[in-house]
Amino acid sequence: MNTTSVSYTLYDTGVAVEQAVTHLMASPFVLLDCEGRDLGTSGGALSLICIGTSKAETIYLFDVPTLSQGGASITPLFELLRSKEVKKVMWDGRMDFIAILDAFGVGIENVVDLQVAEVVSRGIVRGEEEKQRLRRLASNFFGFQAVKVDPKRFEGIHLAIGMQKCLDQNKLGGGIEKDPEVTAMHKANKTGVWMDRPLSHQLLRYAATDIYLLSILHESFTEKGWLFPAVIDTISSQSQCYISMFQGVDVVEDGVFRPGPLINLRHLHTKPEDLVHVCAGCRCRLAVDVFVTRTRRFGESRRVQRLSRCRVCNLMAGKKGLNPDVDWVDV
């Protein structure tokens, strides 16, 4: 197969939106992805909400600006996104979550993020050991010297991979691949074309291809046991924490502390009521256990303190050559 064989339906009028959503609601789960200009960042804009049935037999591309400007009701689409009954399968849904929330005030509920599932599977399914985790961080991101000098700095930190790399590592795709021109455009931060109308067939096909590839990954993960029933609820909970992490944060497109490839799995186990510590780097509300902490005696009492930036942000600061974090904050 090739990219031309991925079919889709573009919705740019409100007439059939409700019918499409009814069809999607009947699917065991749906595949979700978004496209737009600098999604989830300051000055970003949402162009397409792309949703497919469980095996991508049907792929709907909802043209958000055209539907909104035409006065069409897309409320049924919001009901699907926030439904706790219909599971949404995504790949790194952090920026998509922010984009939809910022545009419409609607949060995405009941998510399985396959990027999270891939990371979690390394230990609980594939038996990856600590040395393998550190080797991945060293060889693919930080360099061996940085990891060797102070491995404790990397405690609990995992390096996530992108969708294409996961497809390549698992020899998946069935001959279908992302359009290299559009991929290069994204890497060059030239995403403004997503707001042009009419959208080209090349861009629409690219968006639909992402949904198809999501279906391939989900099927493979299920067959490999990475989404087995005993852990699926936990992965869903972790995914929800992951995609909503930057909620309320003013994300800068080229900022040092923007959403990146590092995941602290401790954060994904956090209860909402523990998210009370604001990181001075990413500005996210986090639990204390994702910071470096210390206990100091002050007179007759002891105080627990944390560094002002979380572990992930301090690692990113070091990689970018910023000054070390020496500011301690009382917990």
Number of strands: 13
Q: Please indicate the percent range of residues in DSSP E strands (runs of 2 or more).
A: 15-25%
For the termini, the CA-CA separation is 56 Å
Overall CATH architecture of the largest domain: 2-Layer Sandwich
CATH topology of the largest domain: Nucleotidyltransferase, domain 5
Number of domains: 2
Query: Helices and strands, in N-to-C order?
Result: EHEEEHHEHEHHHEHHHHEHEEEEHE
Please state the average pLDDT score.
94
Q: Which value, in Å, is the CA radius of gyration?
A: 21 Å
Structural class: alpha/beta
Describe this structure in words.
This is 3'-5' exonuclease domain-containing protein. It comes from Jaapia argillacea MUCL 33604. One of its GO terms (biological process) is nucleobase-containing compound metabolic process. GO terms for molecular function: 3'-5' exonuclease activity; nucleic acid binding. The structure is a single chain. The chain is of the alpha/beta class. It folds into 2 domains: 191 residues, Ribonuclease H-like superfamily/Ribonuclease H (Nucleotidyltransferase, domain 5), CATH 3.30.420.10; 62 residues, no CATH class. Helix content is 39%, strand content 18%. It is built from 13 helices and 13 strands. A 6-stranded mixed sheet has the order 1-4-3-2-5-6, with helices on both faces. It is globular, with a radius of gyration of 21 Å. The protein starts with 8 loop residues before the first strand and ends with a strand. The mean pLDDT is 94.
